[in-house]
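Private note to self, pasted from the team thread so I don't lose it. Backbone tokens:
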């Protein structure tokens, strides 16, 4: 019985087996890899330099593309009434902003033109605005891009001049009609005043006076209307499309990004050369076996 109790009190201990050989093999493999890389270090260096040189040659032979960035205020006619107490400042756009965007893209962007290619133009309405537009122009130089921007503005302004001319003709036509009506009413007033001199009937006399007063009030109303219409012809009310703020130009070209191309080529050359030396060693060992 005593022997059985001693056997029951003995605790079972498990010993984990650690294969030391695996760690040794991994350590040997890592050392072999480092030795292989160091052994072929000149190959890695030369291969990387060749790849980098080819990439640099490609980057420097590419035609440089420059970009300018400008913001435009879309042209409009202010339709606010200076005699009104309201603070509204409605605008009549000479060319609707969305239509202007399509006009610029359709007539001046050469990105889809296989024969030209450049200048290229991007135009978009600035977010949270109604009549401010951002335009980017890419060309072979900043001066060429700036000249192209002026060409775009000149073309837009010519289209706007047609709208402005039509608008002014409409205003002048209204003024002419009012002036004609004022002349006719002045003639009516003169006729009524002559009748006043000859009439002896008090009732007719009062009627004539009332009519004269109405004509004069109407004449004054038309004259005020003419003054208001003339104010709509003021250059201060008419704003043609133009740049706002400074046109941004950049000293360095946007394309090609030489630094990025050379950096990527250098890193690629290192990894590719290392892959090649291991691949060549694998082929060599495979043939020996």
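Design output:
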């Amino acid at each position: 019985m005593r022997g059985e109790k001693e056997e029951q009190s003995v605790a079972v201990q498990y010993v984990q087996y650690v294969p030391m050989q695996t760690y040794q093999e991994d350590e040997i493999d890592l050392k072999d890899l480092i030795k292989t890389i160091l052994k072929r270090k000149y190959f890695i260096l030369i291969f990387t330099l060749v790849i980098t040189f080819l990439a640099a040659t490609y980057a420097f032979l590419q035609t440089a593309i420059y970009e300018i960035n400008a913001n435009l205020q879309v042209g409009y006619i202010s339709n606010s009434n200076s005699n009104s107490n309201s603070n509204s400042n409605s605008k009549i756009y000479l060319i609707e902003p969305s239509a202007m965007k399509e006009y610029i893209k359709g007539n001046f962007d050469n990105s889809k033109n296989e024969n030209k290619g450049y200048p290229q133009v991007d135009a978009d309405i600035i977010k949270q605005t109604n009549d401010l537009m951002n335009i980017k122009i890419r060309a072979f130089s900043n001066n060429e891009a700036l000249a192209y921007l002026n060409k775009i503005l000149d073309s837009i302004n010519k289209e706007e001049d047609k709208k402005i001319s039509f608008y002014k003709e409409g205003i002048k036509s209204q003024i002419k009609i009012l002036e004609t009506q004022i002349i006719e009413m002045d003639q009516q007033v003169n006729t009524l005043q002559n009748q006043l001199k000859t009439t002896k009937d008090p009732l007719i006399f009062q009627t004539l006076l009332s009519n004269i007063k109405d004509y004069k009030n109407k004449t004054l109303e038309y004259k005020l209307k003419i003054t208001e219409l003339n104010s709509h012809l003021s250059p201060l009310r008419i704003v043609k499309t133009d740049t706002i703020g400074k046109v941004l130009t950049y000293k360095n070209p946007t394309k090609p990004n030489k630094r990025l191309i050379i950096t990527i080529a250098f890193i690629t050359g290192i990894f590719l050369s290392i892959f090649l030396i291991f691949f060549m060693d694998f082929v060599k060992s495979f043939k020996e076996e």
